[in-house]
Design a protein that fits this description.
Elements: E1 2-6, H1 13-21, E2 28-32, E3 57-60, E4 63-66, H2 68-78, H3 93-115, H4 121-127, H5 130-141, H6 154-166, H7 172-182, H8 185-196
Parallel strand pairs: 1-2
Antiparallel strand pairs: 1-3, 3-4
Bound molecules: glutathione.
Residues 10-11, 35-36, 44, 53-56, 67-68, 108 line the site of glutathione.
Length: 197
């Protein structure tokens, strides 16, 4: 049994988008929970078993899976028919995994720290900046409309998501990619799903 703990218009919205793309919505129970919001509304939900009260949080047959990157990798592998995962054994599997690890280990810290105005030489030395993030994405998108050429994968769904929330990167190639991802059936469905909530 699969249960996703979700809060509308949050990082778990991209998991709803993924489930739609995977045609897996019916295989997952979606539990809507509250979270504290930046505007002071909302609060931690006792019904959310995430140890920090966060979303997304996935439970599969009693096993907890946390962090968007792990959850999205896991689900895309679990429902391979949609072709959104690059599977083990594929020559590009390593590159595919790298995007997810890089998102969690670099992109989220860099964009979050810059958004709240925190700069420090140590941060720059460790993570670099949004300029390097954009350069990496730009280089990947030189070969096609998505990170893996013509193939839309769960990596596009995860990596474009901060720009869908906080605004496009402001470069034609990147902006067009974000737009392309936002126009996908998954993103459209997730936006409507959350709006209905
Ligand atoms: N790195 C985590 C971040 C999760 C996260 O911070 N989610 C926010 C929603 S956008 C949350 O649950 N906030 C509630 C809280 O911090 O208590 C992931 O991507 O899964």
């Amino acid at each position: 049994m699969l249960t996703l703990f979700h809060s509308p218009q949050s990082r778990s919205t991209r998991v709803i988008a993924l489930l739609k793309e995977l045609d897996a919505l019916e295989a997952v129970t979606i539990e809507r929970v509250t979270i504290p919001r930046r505007d002071g509304t909302g609060s931690r939900d006792p019904a959310n078993p995430h140890p920090d009260g966060k979303v997304p949080f996935l439970i599969h047959d009693g096993v907890a899976i946390w962090e968007s990157s792990a959850i999205m990798l896991y689900l895309a592998d679990l429902f391979p028919d949609a072709g959104l995962s690059i599977p083990p054994g594929h020559p590009r599997r390593g590159a595919y995994l790298s995007w997810f690890a890089w998102y969690s280990g670099v992109v989220e810290p860099v964009l979050t720290l810059e958004a709240v105005g925190v700069t420090h030489p140590g941060i720059m030395a460790t993570f670099r900046s949004h300029l390097e993030v954009k350069a990496r994405l730009r280089a990947a998108l030189a070969d096609g409309p998505f990170l893996f050429g013509n193939r839309f994968t769960a990596a596009d769904l995860l990596l474009h998501s901060p720009y869908a929330w906080f605004g496009k990167p402001g470069e034609p190639i990147l902006d067009a990619w974000v737009e392309r991802c936002m126009e996908r059936p998954g993103a459209r469905f997730a936006a409507a799903f959350d709006a209905a909530a």
